Amino acid sequence: MAATPLTATELDRALTDLSGWTVRDGKLTATFKADRSAVPALYAAVATAEDEANHHAEVTILYGTIGFALNTHDAGGTITALDTAMATRLNTLAAEHGARPANG
User: 12 — alpha (psi -120 to 50), left (phi > 0) or beta?
Assistant: First the structure.
């Protein structure tokens, strides 16, 4: 089944449940802060989750921050339910590794 873009209403509804996430340049994005020593383990857990889901984020790591940008290439680079599901998983992994949203 092909991924379909979320409607504006669906995306707004999803964002209410995705603490720290926003839409920027057509991508679902978030940045988390963590102890710098915790970032490698967090990224390892993220990579495993991405591979299991066969859905990968753009990841940026700088000192004690790790940022994510999600969209679905198979849906024309739009935001789909695949992205919101991965964002939910990333929030869980971040919390498990002591990371918190950078904007909060």
Answer: alpha
